[in-house]
Amino acid sequence: MIAKKDYEAKRELFIKRMEMSDKVFAKVKEKLIELGIPVLVDYSSYESHPLGRSEWIKVYGELMGQEALAETLFEEQAAQLATIESRASTGKTVVFFYVNSSGQVVTRKSGDYITKMIQLAGGEPAIQNLGSSETATSTITMEMEQFYSQAKDADIFIYNSTIDGAITSIDDLLQKSNLLSGCKAVKNGDVWCTRENLFQEPMKLGTVISDFHAIFTDTTAEHAPVFLYRLESGDAS
Predict the structure, then answer these.
(1) Could you tell me the pTM of the whole model?
(2) N or C: which end of the chain has fewer CB atoms below 10 A?
(3) Which ranges of 104-228 does DSSP label H, i.e. alpha helix?
(4) What is the pLDDT of residues 71-110, one digit of tens each?
(5) Which long-range contacts (CB under 8 A, 24 or more apart) does 21-26 make?
């Protein structure tokens, strides 16, 4: 377990690095403009609605002279969401997380675009009221015991492989912490993993939402997920 003072020190270091990165970017941008080089800043990550991020494809379509294609691709994503939004909530509780190298759990802040996609897909975040809307970070780090107490009754686990690397089985998950064997989703074998390109496809968030809906409604036979796969079952008892 990381001592509080160590955590605070790491947090302060992270903040300083972020501030330094912002300052470096500002200087580079200023220099490029000074040299007469056009600069476009992609603010898609600031969009409050997931499809707002996908809609940025229209910006790049405009730049490349492919406005019609960009419009078509965006409408395909919007249509997938429209189909799902007309359906009732699934009532499934969901946790999206990964385990870091220190054995802590990193999950998404309430109101983050991932949690919004879970809700748009008919699910409900199993852990509520995480983080502050005043902070820019999108994740929350929790001790494993705290996570277990709040997530043990969740219906579905989604493991984020984009940071920690892909896992293929529930046994792989339990190697990170055997405490997770007592969780409902693990016992029922309802544990899924993201493919590592999930965050590299912001223009396909309608498809991601459709994938979520398929696993929440147990309809993956009809809609094979593009960005998710079920972990192979092991003996989680």
Answers:
(1) 0.82
(2) C
(3) 113-120, 144-151, 161-164, 170-176, 184-187, 205-216
(4) 999 999 999 999 898 787 899 999 999 999 899 999 998 8
(5) none
Output the six-digit token pair for 59: 């910006």
How many residues are present in the chain? 237
Question: How do residues 185-205 score in pLDDT, each as one tens digit?
Answer: 999 999 999 998 888 888 899
Name the band, by pLDDT with cuts 50, 70 and 90, for residue 136: low
Structure tokens belonging to residue 39: 């600069």
| Rounded to 5°, angle at Cα 60 from 44 and 138 | 15
**To which residue do tokens 């293929």 refer?**
168
CA distance 227 to 198: 6
Q: Residue 105: in which H helix or E strand, if any?
A: strand 105-108
Question: Nearest Cα to 76, choosing from 224, 204, 226?
Answer: 204
